Amino acid sequence: MKLKTTLLIAALTSMTAHAEINISGFASVNGGKVLSGTGAPQYGIEPSFLADYPIVSTYTEDFSFSPESLIGLQVTGDLGNGLSVTGQIVARGANDFDAEFEWAYISYELNDSWTLQAGKKRLPLFYYSDFYDVGYAYVWMRPPADNYTWQIFNYEGVNLLYNGSIGDWGLSANIYTGKEDDTENKLLSDFFFRAPTREIWEDILGGVVNLSHDWLEIRLTHMRYTNKRFIDGEPSMWNGKDERDGKFYGLAVNADFGNFFILSELNRLELDSDFDTYMISVGYRFDEITPYIMYSDYEQSGDGDVEKHDTTAVGVRWNFHPSAAFKVQYDRVKDDSFDFAVAGDSKAITFGVDVVF
Asked: Contact at 8 Å (CB) between 210 and 238?
């Protein structure tokens, strides 16, 4: 573990005499393989299914449990009077199960509605961002990779949370600011550029609004940031500049009618080009068994169109235990990228068990 991991463990342990300690966890044991695929031979990529972009969770024609299996532990120390400390450790098969702190922050409840937080947290770009690693929390094997594709997923900074209501509508909101400096970004280093790549997102400023009433939930999000990048130590240049500004917009609309549900998410990133993604999924609950289908799409538009791919998935979830679910999913990926294939077409099967404790 890194030094900061050891220090935070020591800090949390030292609080035992002064705070109420709550420990919870989650785990996924998932396996799968590519049934068929084209790969991208011009880049030395064998037939592959890229299940998770940020951590380069990749299945090949050899069956494996490594790409998506993980275990996480969350420790919260309640110091009283509205002050608490939270740390979350995650060990991923895609990273040889090296355990790292992915969340480490303090919270202070200003009153019944407002909470101030500071530290390292998940960047709340997407509907499932805050609980992305907790497979038990959603119906599929994973949120669709076509949507959840960006290389940065954590940030260090401060945020202000609000929970309340407007009439009959529940309302929650989050305003956040900070930066992330990933000295060797896994997605860009290992997959896209095949060279050590430092990815920096600074001057991050964003907001999230979530509205819910009866069967309907609506989530709106917007974020601005400045991007810098170094490949093999050399700065990337965009139109003669060593930085570029990005704007992210997101909309999620979910409808749950008891047994039948519809889930959707639409996102756009405005950078050098426009990057558009969307997902729609429907399912039906038969007691403990929930079959579902999902379609997701990613398209980059603008000068020199280079990337376009979509995924069709069908699967079933079985809640065989109050704290565990078995899932199996078939994914078909079509890679219609213009200048290069990201990972090529593929058909893959994955299955696994998600638990919370």
From this structure: no
Phi, psi of 213 (to 5 degrees): -155, 120
**In this predicted structure, what is the pLDDT of residue 1?**
44
Q: What is the mean pLDDT of residues 34-63?
A: 91
Q: Which CATH superfamily is domain 3-356 in?
A: Porin (2.40.160.10)
- Structure tokens, 354: 């998600």
At 189 the three-state DSSP class reads: helix
What are the two backbone dihedrals, phi and then psi, of residue 353, each rounded to the nearest 5 degrees?
-125, 130
Per this entry, what is the length of the chain? 357
- C-alpha 202/C-alpha 237 separation (Å) is 16
Q: Transcribe 156-176 into DSSP letters.
A: EEEEEEEEEEETTEEEEEEEE
Q: Among 320, 271, 268, 319, which residue's Cα sits nearest to residue 298?
A: 268
For residue 167, give the 3-state DSSP assignment.
coil
What is the CA 211 to chain-centroid distance, rounded?
Answer: 21
